[in-house]
Amino acid sequence: MKNNILNIKNSIHANRRWALIAAYSCLIIFVIFFLFPPYYMLITALKTNKEIAEMATNPWLIKQGITFEHFIYLFTKTPFLTFFKNTIIVTVSVVIITMVISVLAAYSLSRLKFWGSGVLATGIFLTYLVPETLLFIPLFKIVGWLGLLNSYWVLVLVYPTLSVPFCTWLMIGYFSSIPKEIDEAALIDGANHMQMLLKVFIPVAMPGLIAATIFAFTVSWAGFLYPLAFIYSESEMVLTVGTVTTLIKGDVFNWGSLMSGALLAAAPPVIIYAFLMDYYIAGLTSGATKG
Amino acid sequence: MAEVLIKNLHKVFDRTEVVSGIDLSIKDKEFVILVGPSGCGKSTVLRMIAGLEDITKGEIFIENNKVNDIPPKDRDIAMVFQSYALYPHMTVFENMSFGLRLRKFSKNDIKVRVDEAAKVLGISELLDRRPKQLSGGQRQRVAMGRAIVRNPKVFLFDEPLSNLDAKMRGQMRIEIKRVHQHLNTTTIYVTHDQVEAMTLADRVVVMKNGKIEQIGTPDEIYNNPATGFVAGFIGAPAMNFISCKLEKGSKGLYANITKDIVLSIPKEKNIKLSKYVNKAIVLGIRPEHISENKQKNSLKIVAKLNIVEPLGMETMVYFPINNTQICGKVSPDNTIQNGKVITLYFDSLKFHFIDPETDLVLN
After folding, report:
1. Which residues of A fall within a CB distance of 8 Å from B88?
2. B156 to chain A: nearest residue by CA?
3. Spatial CB neighbours of B221, under 8 Å, sequence gap ≥ 6
């Protein structure tokens, strides 16, 4: 009997050990797979032009010493800082516009049951499914007519067409998971809709709000097609298109500066994700009702 | 503190009428419990009083003001929900003071009220915690605290104890009674638990299918049920119902159950029964009125037990009559076992007679 229990215990241990080994192996493969591009970006940014061009050396290592010449080139010879500033203006505006619209829309669609609210909620999500590669031609006409072509403000106008539907849909899900009794309690406590949204819904759905913010931020920070189609002056360009157009001259690729530009452009998202991750994971919704 | 008056209240959801014509007058400081099986419309009535559901037809008055079109926040009511509905991101203090903050009370006033309520409920030490750090019982106290601080005219409770385990339920029941005695606020309480109804209420309203079956004190409801439904719903174990035929003999009326079991009906019970002679009728008797003790009006019956349930405080015995399982209650000292044949006595003064067609109790 005792032996039996021991055997079972051992087999549970063995089982768990194998599960852990399998999990770690998969994770290591994923980490290598996903970290390779950033790693390659980093070492290329730090290599000399000569080493980058040399075909004989090992491309995964720096052999001939580190250099910051590409960064210096980027800041002195290209309007990189202008791109950076433009991107920040566009992204901050897009995130604010997106969050205001989608939170209000999600609240009304999930809680104020009005005629057609269900159809509208599905409709909003469907618009997200239309690819931007299809939309940019008609949008070109529209923004041209609005006189916004070749200005980064055009991006502030068009990016929300991508971010608002998805964020609204995401927030509808989060708001719907808040138990109905909580609104009723707030209603009896004397809250109007705005107070209910600001003081109850937004704090309770904070993880969802952060997920939506990250999404809107990414759409705007990493967007490539719209700036490529709508903007052609260097002074109005954002990071993604600006770096590429100024550092690829004909068939000459400034790989070192391209990679250092990409590295710097990738820094803000990484910092923001790392900062928001704690909030993202914190389970604020538990304990609302039973359980 | 206020009276609540409900006149001809109706509620229709998607063409289904869930509340059909409720009239109820609740006095100031009264503790009224709406009780009934699930789907009887009791919660809907409460939610209409709270203003959380529109009223299809009828009127509700709180302190002589018609509140049909007044939003919940202006009705001066407070509600405690089954699921507690605490704000998860706020501390206990913030949860309790939320309503006061929205009503722009001064900080000092808020603190005094919350401290006072926390003291009454014994949760003063928990004010800095968040709901998820509390047990079910503590959460329910906080939910009550949130209602108390506002000092409303009417308290509404929607099955507040249903999520708690049996022991905690017993404790909270006493707590609610204590708080009501302390605050003396008009209280309307919905439950499906008849023990809560019997122990807490000044008056009990038994509902079925959107209608009121009976309104009365717990004692009236228990001892003089108006319908067979009320008789069967209130009391645990439930009242026994035995189909029989009413017959007239030389010494009065008899309930003919089977060829061997014919029970004589005491004269006190004869009123109203004469027109049922030679007709089918249902005899109702509570388990505690079937025992091994012989009394003045006892009728002897010999029963072959098929289930014996010793509960410690008492022992429940079950035996069949006419394929109906009948429950009786005997002293726990009685060492009886399944399969044994014993003599039991029906207390005939406690008989209830029910018209099988109208479900009305006839005495």
Report:
1. 204, 284-288
2. A188
3. B197, B198, B204, B206, B214, B230, B234
Q: How far apart are CA B254 and CA B129, in angstroms?
A: 66
CB atoms within 10 A of CB A129: 8
For A241-267, the pLDDT digits (tens) are 999 999 888 888 889 999 999 999 999
Q: Identify the three-state secondary structure at position B204.
A: strand
Q: What's the pLDDT score for residue A2?
A: 62
Query: Does residue B94 sit at the A interface (CB-CB below 8 Å)?
Result: no
Question: Does the distance separating the beta carbons of A290 and B163 come in below 8 Å?
Answer: yes
User: How is the beta sheet containing B280-285 ordered, strand by strand?
Assistant: B262-264, B252-256, B240-249, B280-285, B352-354
Where does CATH 3.40.50.300 sit in chain B?
4-233
Burial of B359 (0-12, 13-18, 19+ CB in 10 A): middle
Nearest to B81 among A185, A190, A199 (CB): A185
CB distance from A290 to chain B under 8 Å?
Answer: yes
Count helices and strands in chain A by DSSP H and E runs? 14, 2
Position A288 confidence tier, pLDDT thresholds 50, 70, 90: very low
From chain B, pick out residues whose CB is under 8 angstroms from the CB of A286: 88, 132
Compute the mean pLDDT over every residue in chain A, rounded to the nearest whole number.
88
3-state DSSP assignment of residue B193:
coil
> B73 to chain A: which residues are within 8 Å by CB?
187-191
Q: Which residues of chain B have pLDDT under 50?
A: none
Tell me, what's the pLDDT at B19? Answer: 94
User: pLDDT for B305-339, tens place per residue?
Assistant: 889 998 888 899 999 988 889 999 998 876 788 88
> Are β-strands B31-35 and B203-208 bridged in parallel, bridged antiparallel, or unpaired?
parallel
Q: Are B92 and B84 in contact (CB under 8 A)?
A: no
Whether A57 contacts A43, CB under 8 Å: no
Give start-end residues of each CATH 2.40.50.140 domain in chain B. 240-354
Indicate the burial class of B233 (C-beta count within 10 angstroms; 0-12, 13-18, 19 or more): buried
Chain A residues whose beta carbon lies within 8 Å of the beta carbon of residue B87? 182, 185-186, 200, 204, 288
Q: Is A209 on the interface with B (CB under 8 A)?
A: no
Q: What is the mean pLDDT of residues A225-245?
A: 92
Fold of B240-354: OB fold (Dihydrolipoamide Acetyltransferase, E2P) (2.40.50)
Phi, psi (rounded to 5 degrees) for B247: -130, 155
User: B12: which 2 tokens?
Assistant: 């229709």
Q: Is A228 on the interface with B (CB under 8 A)?
A: no
> Is domain B4-233 in CATH 3.40.50.720, yes or no?
no
Q: What average pLDDT does chain B have? A: 90
- For A141-161, the pLDDT digits (tens) are 999 999 999 999 999 999 999
ipTM: 0.84
How confident is residue A287, by pLDDT bands cut at 50, 70 and 90? very low
